[in-house]
Amino acid sequence: MKILASLREWYEEDKRQALTFGVSALALALSFFDVRLRQLDPAWLTVLLCGVPIVRGAAEGLWREFDIKADVLVSLALIASVIIGEIFAAGEVAFIMQLGAMLEERTVAKARAGIEKLVRLTPRTARRVDGDTESVIPAEQVAAGDLLRVLPGETIPVDGVIVAGRTSINQAVMTGESLPVDKEPGDEVCSGTVNQFGAFDMRAVKVGEDSSLQRMIRLVQSADAGKARIVSMADRWATWIVVGALAAAAATWLITGEILRAVTILVVFCPCALVLATPTAIMAAIGNATRNGVLVREGDALERLARVDTLAFDKTGTLTRGRPGVRHVHSALTDMDGPALLALAAAAESRSEHPLGRAIAAACPDHAAPETFRMLPGRGVEAVITGRRLLAGTTALLADAGISPSAADAHAAAQQRAEGCTLVHLALDNQYAGFIALADELRDDAPATVRDIRAEGVRVALLTGDHEEAARHVAAALHLDDLRASCLPEDKLRWIEDRDREGRRVCMIGDGINDAPALKKAFVSVAMGGIGSDIAVDAADMALVRDDIRRLPHMLALSRRMMRVICINLTFSLVLNFAAIFLAMGGLLSPVAGALVHNAGSVLVIVHSALLLRWQEKNARKSTGCPLTSTGAGRNVNPSI
């Protein structure tokens, strides 16, 4: 739905522009067949619709910033053509140049609302407790030291410390963790995170602009402002093109005394094919990406992706499924095996709202119904199944009942925790019964994806807010090059900045709100378009529509193929330009013929770029093909943990 809304918005914004180009094209066609409208050349309409904006933009750039771009030369050619009466040539040049500009604009991201959505996450109110009085106040009025109460389902208004009550907190907004974290008195909580189950009282510590959520908003803003944009090739060379064109035209006029030749040089010197070389290839590559389930939101994202040498993955929801599953059941009872113990636990958890409880219940759908059920926020559940009392939850819950595991059971539990599992301990009729180990499971396609990315010469890193053991298990399973665990949003941002200072170009892959600053800061970024948050998608340059990470190696290869096509387009357009200039200097090309030569060159560039639409990787690992796409080689090293 998010992607459909973006496409609908793009369509509405571009309807007027499409109408303008349609009218301009019709006017040029009528002029070409010498159709007159009350003795007026229809090409004048194209000059007004397409040419005037070019001249105005060039004049403003020169006047305000002395910024010489390709549109300066185009403006000179337009004015000169109009002066000598070559209206069709002026209209054709204006139309082609505006077509190139339109293609570039359509590849540039529209105004995004990611920061606004982050701001909307900020809690508006807080419950302040003063003695026996509880009052609802605006969140900005909370002062450090205030005692606040947070009910189940409410968002925590400021950073603070729990002083009374137990609960589970969904911290995905800050850390991206797939599971809620149990909290008790003395534990810290962050603004923007969600209280899931039990009510608790907290003491405010960091308020207003100092809170975690406000700090993340500032990180997103600063990361976006600091990201450099790639300048188009035509504009990069515009100064030299303008100087060369003026010098050639002036020399020809002085030597031959023919103003027509000078104007023809200005017309053929217009970088029409040069301007179209990059955006047409980008548009075709974007079409290819769309067919493969990737929405490209930033126009130059594929250019940047071609130069990436490091891919940094968030863990939860990208390399993993983003939801817990039962990995192992350990029974400490001699008269009950693992499946039977799991069935009892599933019956007890069948009424639980906790993600771990739901995962256990889903693992054994054919379970009995509990006779009684009680949820203990932040600790676990208590239930009676077929007359037997079962406790399922933390070791603290069992300890309160005077129950503890044996040394052998504790050792088995430690082994599962070392592999990144979260444990739910069980007690049956006041006897330790065992535990269930749950973990966020790897995607089936994650190993092949990482292998193919590394085969492209790109390093793969893992940046996750999850704890060290879970991150270490994933890094070892996928043979990743680098690992950073327990990352807050600023930690991921700092890691990318460090790589940037080393001269590395990082592509960040993420899905959560906590990934937004890193997605903004990275050289190029990809969000999971299906399960990813709106804010992550808005912050990223590209989005995987179907959350298919197997598309990433194809996108790397496609981006490099696109840069090769751009190199060929640029070379061809420059050769065509210089050939046309020599012909114009010799008087062999008129302004109209020169414009037609440029039109033919532009068509060839468009056709060559269009081949990217259906390009599929065959031997893409060998086909970088252009010095613009060189990347650092990946190394097969162990995870740096």
SS summary, helix count? 24
Main pleated sheet: 7 strands, mixed
Mean pLDDT: 77
Helix-strand category:
alpha+beta
Q: Percent range for helical residues?
A: 40-55%
Low-confidence stretches: 107-116, 222-231, 619-641
Strand order of the largest sheet: 10-22-21-20-11-18-19
Cα-atom Rg, whole angstroms?
32 Å
So what's the overall shape? elongated
Number of strands: 22
Please supply descriptive tags for the structure shown above.
641 residues, alpha+beta, seven-stranded mixed sheet, six-stranded antiparallel sheet, disordered C terminus
In short:
With 641 residues, the chain is α+β, with helices and mostly antiparallel strands. It is built from 24 helices and 22 strands.
Structure description:
- It is a single chain.
- This protein is α+β, with helices and mostly antiparallel strands and 641 residues long.
- The protein is built from 24 helices and 22 strands.
- The strands form four sheets. Strands 10-22-21-20-11-18-19 form a seven-stranded mixed beta sheet, sandwiched between helices. A six-stranded antiparallel beta sheet has the order 2-1-3-9-4-7, with no helix packed on it.
- Helix 22 (534-539) links the parallel strand 21 and strand 22 (542-544).
- It is elongated, with a radius of gyration of 32 Å.
- The two termini are 39 Å apart.
